[in-house]
Design a protein that fits this description.
With 318 residues, the chain is of the alpha+beta class. The protein is built from nine helices and eight strands. It is 47% helix and 18% strand. Belongs to the SMC family. SbcC subfamily.
């Protein structure tokens, strides 16, 4: 929010028309309002609040109508301000009494609101474009741009006369809501919600992965032989934080043991094949020696076998 100008008329101690040019005061980036008690410092803050919200600051007794103003001069406040990049002019005429046009006495003056925005036409000429005369529409637009209610605005922005202590003494819930709207922390709340949802999703995925690890470990135990001792150091659900690393170490040890058993079995198989070949060679040598001792040749041996197996006998029946 940046204040540009404040126009007062018959407001508080200001009996006539007065203008405060904040642009000129803030040329150096910082300015100070000071003066004697009753000089009207708090009235300026009250006028800003009336312009923005249509009411004076909360918990503060402010008489809007100047006692010194001419009877025919209405009390009103006009504020030129930039909110969220929009330069607005807000004119407020509070409810008050005014002299009757005819005859003696007063007549009620209803509260009026005029909201305009500074715009430029195609030729680059700036002008005030009326936006609304509705109290509700103006209030909604200003609150949406400013992001604070009147009470919050008075606690955070308007802090004259040591009223900052009210903000400091507010309970944690009130300060949280106030600072959240002031500094637009909704995006952080959205991030927090996303992280919580992400945490829940990852926890579910982690639990499913742990269940898969336990199922695989059970299958490994069923497939492993007793000499591999698969029960020794097997992962269990009672150690969720170290389940994966433990299961990996356990499975690696089993693989190493199985590989060693396979290598031993392979070596044993080679030795057995070598022994079988040696026995077969010895058997052939013994047979050859036996044949020679009987003085027969391989052909004779064949004839002997044929002689021991006579052919069919033919005969006739009676």
């Amino acid at each position: 929010m940046r204040l540009h100008a404040l126009h007062l008329q018959a407001f508080g101690p200001f009996a006539d028309r007065h203008t405060v040019n904040f642009d000129a005061l803030s040329a150096d980036g910082l300015f100070l309002l000071h003066g004697d008690t009753g000089a009207g410092k708090s009235t300026l803050f009250a006028a800003i609040c009336v312009a923005l919200y249509g009411e004076p600051p909360t918990d503060r007794s402010v008489h809007l109508r100047s006692h010194h103003a001419p009877a025919d001069l209405l009390t009103e406040v006009t504020l030129e301000v930039t909110l969220a990049g929009k330069r607005l002019r807000i004119r407020r005429i509070p409810a008050q009494l005014k002299p009757k046009v005819r005859g003696p006495g007063d007549t009620p003056q209803k509260a009026e609101t005029y909201l305009s925005e500074w715009t430029s036409n195609a030729a680059g000429e700036g002008h005030w474009e009326p936006l609304s005369k509705s109290h509700r529409e103006a209030a909604d637009e200003i609150k949406a741009l400013l992001g604070m209610s009147r009470k919050q605005f008075c606690q955070v922005v308007l802090l004259p006369q040591n009223e900052f202590t009210k903000f400091l003494r507010a309970d944690a819930s009130e300060r949280k809501d106030l600072l959240g709207k002031l500094f637009h922390t909704q995006r952080f709340a959205s991030i927090e919600a996303w992280l919580a949802d992400r945490k829940s999703t990852l926890a579910k995925t982690r639990d499913e992965a742990r269940a898969d690890v336990l199922r695989l470990a059970e299958r490994i135990q069923q497939a492993a032989t007793d000499d591999l001792e698969p029960e020794s150091g097997a992962p269990t659900a009672s150690e969720p934080t170290t389940l994966t690393d433990h299961a990996r170490t356990w499975a690696t040890a089993l693989c190493t043991a199985a590989a060693a058993r396979q290598q031993t079995a392979g070596t044993t198989l080679v030795h057995a094949q070598q022994e079988l070949t040696a026995f077969q060679d010895k058997e052939r040598a013994v047979r050859e020696l036996a044949r020679r001792q009987h003085g027969s040749s391989p052909g004779d041996e064949g004839r002997e076998k044929h002689a021991r197996c006579p052919g069919p006998v033919w005969g006739w029946g009676p």
